[in-house]
Amino acid sequence: MNSSRAVRLRHPAGPDNLRLENAVALAPGAGEIKVRIRGAALNFRDGLVVNGFFPAKDGLIPLSDGAGEVLAVGDGVTEFAVGDRVVSTFHPKWLDGHMDRAELDNAPGAPADGFACEETTRPATHFTRAPQRWGHAEAATLTCAGVTAWRAVITDGRVKPGDYVVVQGTGGVSLFALQFAKMAGAIIIATSSSDEKLARLKALGADHVINYRDVEKWGETVIALTGGRGAEHVIEVGGPHTIGQSFVAARTGGHIALIGAAGGFDIDTMPFAIVQAKRLKLQAVTVGSRRDQIEMVRAIDAHGLRPVIDSTFPLENLGDAFRRLQSGGHVGKICIDI
């Protein structure tokens, strides 16, 4: 066994109680690989864990997303070899097909230990190959945000050339959704409260942009931009405070991917009448399977996509990375070099 470093979340939870400590790196057993983690990435969910909104054990190693290279392989492992570049999966038990919610119980970063660490030993199926031309921190952006967007746009959404796709804001899921939808030939309508961020979205390929602070009923603007028909797909990340306008923006029979609640969780009523009248398809997304990740990486390699990185912090400054996340000023992913 070798000693390495890991950041642990101590009680009471908060960015100020992230402690850099020693950790033990075990040799891999049968079916396992030992990985030197080189990069990690932050998600909205990680912020909820670190700030105590989602209860976690004292001493939890946070961060659901990690990438690095294989240091050793255990007996029976044939998919990976020493030196291979790999990226973690969010739902390690969900390999393919259907998976019941009760079985999705060991996501890294809570309840299981995550990847704010230098080394880890886990079953080989907890990883896939990383994109060929991406750095480790870039690859780490895929585990949660990338796979979620892939599932919403490609696996569930089946976006086609010429479809209108609405994306909200400049978080990791929204930006990956924009990129994957453009890859599929879609027309992108992007929303944000910041003109500066809207300019970034245009540069990334958005065909139309809407400042939702200036245009409160932005769903009607989407209807106008689509010639009166509405968008075939809406990537809904805001939650209760945006979903009403998402319903307005969607085309009759449109697909709405329900992903998050970045705007908050408080809601008393849901405008079901419009859902029924427009025959909307509401599809909740809880990241995706290992198969989704494998297929996404293949598409990235084929199309040469690159992730949008806002900023990068060293492992010992993980608390500062979470403060950047909480500020809401970021565009794209906040990453950790390890």
Describe the 3D structure.
With 338 residues, this protein is of the alpha/beta class. It folds into two domains: 2-144 and 288-337, Quinone Oxidoreductase, Chain A, domain 1 (Alpha-Beta Complex); 157-284, Rossmann fold. 27% of the residues lie in helices and 27% in strands. The protein contains ten helices and 15 strands. The protein has helices at residues 44-50, 136-140, 142-155, 172-183, 195-203, 218-225, 243-249, 272-277, 290-303, 318-327, and strands at 2-9, 18-25, 32-41, 65-73, 85-88, 119-123, 127-129, 164-168, 187-192, 208-211, 231-236, 250-258, 281-284, 309-314, 333-337. Strands 3, 4, 5, 6, 7, 14 and 15 form a seven-stranded mixed sheet that branches. Strand 12, helix 8 (272-277) and strand 13 form a beta-alpha-beta unit. Helix 6 packs parallel to helix 7 (243-249). The mean pLDDT is 95.
